[in-house]
Amino acid sequence: MEQRRFTGNNHWYHETQTSLPAHRAPLMPEAANVEDRFLLGLAQQAGGELNTIFQQMQPALLASRDLYQLLFPPEMTTTLSHTLTLYDRISSALTVAQVTGVQRLCNHYAARLNPLPGPDSSRESNHRLTQITEYARQLASQPTLIDALSVQRLDDVGLSAPDIISLSQIVGFVSYQARVVAGVHALMALPVRWMPGVTIPPDAVSDNFLSPQAWCPALPPLELRYAAPDQLEALTFCQPLTELEEGAWLFAHDGKALYGLGRLIDALEEVRSRSSCSLAAAVTSRINGSVSCFERYAAKNDLRPALQESVEQALSVADSPRQALISLAAQLTRSPERVNAAHIQPLKDAGFSSAQIFEIILSVASASWGNRLMQGLGTSGE
Of 316, 315, 314, which Cα lies nearest the Cα of 305? Predict the structure, then answer.
């Protein structure tokens, strides 16, 4: 992503975060109008084997595209209980894209944000946007930094429970999208660009994994008596899904997003049941510090004790094929913008097909989303 230093400022800014005149165009305005707003044009560039894989995974990709349209519609109207504007949503998406460092995402969300009217210049509006941005940045970069005080700060600037759930879903979705896009880039052997000198956050400490506790929501879950028809429909569909049974009543504050996520998880059910994919998801959950997700994914894996200690410990005791898998999952989780064909090749050398590698990428990406919902909206291991 191109960065610029403007005279009189002592910081680097993305062009959408400066006070330049509103008519200034983004670096790549065409990025806002790409037809496939999930893979952002990569499907049109793919050919041969990868195109066949996309066809096989069509239900999951369609669910992902539908989720994009739901979270980032062309326009939207706020209400007393749903105060997030389209600017809030896409600004938060751009923040997450910048955290992941995936250039294609940064171009897209910057181009979409550019023409939107921002909030007024009052102190209250500035403080509200600052808290939204900080929450999105922390949840995207290091989920373990989020605690009850982080959620309270959002409440203090006027965000409702549905707002906080929607914001967390947006951060989760873009974190998921970034890792799918980065993984497809690597499968296509496309060159990647990343900013040198970026510090990668450390993995979560092992303490909570060695003595896990039950997950508790950080906000009051939806009460049945207040549930709207779309929320009840989402709960009916999503509660039987293992990944959502703990948090469904909390996530139901945004019933449409919950239903969309449930459709995606349902489409990935067969993929996530494979031992290689559950191991990849467990690695992601271990790095991100999501105890409840880790316990679910690693429950039947013989590497669970080693993973509880650290990813490096698991690498030291795993066989060669699983070492290659763990390495890719860890790289995609920690630093998606640096993933390239060299990270894919060890898996191919170990006998994994491109279809199996894509399933592993989807597992890491979807676990990244689930981790952020569980970390951002609840606590465990205390």
Answer: 314
